[in-house]
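Question thread 4412

I'm putting together a teaching handout and wanted feedback from people who do this every day. The idea is simple: show students a protein as raw sequence, then show them the structure tokens that encode its fold, then repeat with a second protein so they can compare. Below is the first pair exactly as I plan to print it.
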Amino acid sequence: MYYDLTKGPITKNLILFSLPMIAGDLLQQFYNIADTLIVSRFIGSHALAAVGSAYALMTFLTSIFIGLAMGVSSLLSIDLGKQEEERLKSTIVHSFFLIMSITIILTILVYLGINPILHFLQIPQSLLYGTQTYLLIIFSGMIAVALYNFITCILRAVGNSLTPLYFLGVSALINIILDLVFIIVFHMGIGGAALATVIAQYISAIGITLYFCKHCQAYMPRKRHCHYDSQILSEITKYSLFTCLQQSCMNFGILLIQRLVDSFGAITMAGFAAAVKIDTFAYLPVQDFGNAFSTFIAQNFGAHHKKRLRSGIKIATCVSALFSLILSLLVFIFAKPLMMLFVKAHEIQVISSGVRYLRIEGAFYVGIGCLFLLYGLYRSIDKPQMSLVLTIISLGLRVVLAYAFAPIWGEVGIWVSIPIGWFIADTFGYFYYLRHRATLLP
């Protein structure tokens, strides 16, 4: 189903457009959830810690081309709002070659630099082999992740958020089945978990690409669109560069936090690895609502619907805040049972570490919910540099405070720093919008 977000009731359309995105990303998390559950249950907490460290690194690397795709999505939505379909098709061609070229270069670089990367992360010697094995296999799926996210961003930009859900559903199921087969039947260990994820990633990427080529002829580029246009490439760079930097800075900050967590040893690493999976799963709905909001803003910005833009910002903030509070309450109450899904009951210290994280950081999801809205807003009104500024404020403060508090309060100092960074960035983002609203939404 395709949604024209320049028309109709704002609240209803935003929610309906975001629901498939939420369901799709929840399914995508099954890639990581399946690895975490099966690895922790059938291999052990050391393997769980290794997967956790690898996950932080992989998230940072994939954020680069995901950020590029998100920037392209905003530009495509603006073209659609302006009804410039020929320009939209040329933008698709240019952005495809840009994103895939960067992904290939990045893949080569990480393979060449695997040992320095592991050294930087301060991986304990006991976890070094498992982490390296997992990463060497999981890196081979980067091209698939880039292709899937590129096609998904095109579909979402033109108002189709439902189709990616189907492909993720199939690939998530395949991931879980292959995890069980490779680890339990063939005893392939942590490498089997990585291989299952990579196979599932390629299935979803190839499937959604074939769908786009067959069923989206209205947006399919033709030969006449395959020529170099410096102006289009410049606009793609303008929108994508800051979004890419914003995503990369955000995940580099998380990587630095992971490095600090690793210094506390295997127990904290394992607790953090499981808790982050729960955490990511919990706030995915508000993250995807922010991405849906970004498409809404971009389409209406392109169509010059000033009044609708202002109303949408107010409505989206209220909806996101309410939903975030509900999520926080659920995570706070069920923190221990959720941790015990990933960690065996006798590993009390690991469970306690994860519960502390969830009850401190998870109580303030309203902060990250509003921050996702601000990212989407500024990315879609030709101010992507503001998203980068907000990320630097949020993550910069988080890293600085975590490294300052950790020697005093231990791991609790790391967890406390996270919501502080969110709320200070939110305050700055909304203050800037209110002060410059007349010029931001002309």
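The second pair follows. I'd like the answer to focus on this one:
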Amino acid sequence: MKKDEINRNPALDEETLSTQPIFEGKIITLQVDTVKLPDGNTATREVVKHPGAVAVLALNNNKMLVVEQYRQPMHRTEVEIPAGKLDKGEDPLAAAGRELQEETGFHSGELKLLKSFYTSPGFADEIIHLYVTDNAQPGDMALDEDEFLEVSELTLEEAYQYIADGRIADAKTMMAVYAWHLYTLTGQWH
């Protein structure tokens, strides 16, 4: 069975009848699709199109590198692992190395893909490729001109406390913390 057939159930497929573009921005586009449902009726689906992103669980001396930055949709700062969107045609591995260096100043020649996952499949096609390195080396940051953040390092215990306190509230960073914890228990990245 091919990989793209694994998540197919033809009895549940929806056929796209038309697509109406609504908005095209720098990062996302929004469209409304009219679909034919399995029972023959039609419905609309609001879809956010996204180029994809990368995130890096980077460990330095058994501490996780994180960045704190303001997130406008939530009107507050968030503590997150380094991450960013893919440029058009960019290889996710190269993007992961780029984002790690740009946001933290650290670099690593040993990035390993942990997992790729969809952030909100009910309305968006954004996929995040989560990489890990336990060999992060310090260097120089290269932030974008509109990017303001602070870099710090957390122990596993501190990361769990940040989750409990709500300072870490995004899925990619929580997933990274849980993967790191599992690694400490098994010695393997899952």
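Top answer:
Good format. For the second protein you could add a caption like this: Strands lie at 15-24, 29-36, 42-49, 53-60, 63-71, 76-80, 83-85, 112-118, 127-133, 149-154. The mean pLDDT is 94.
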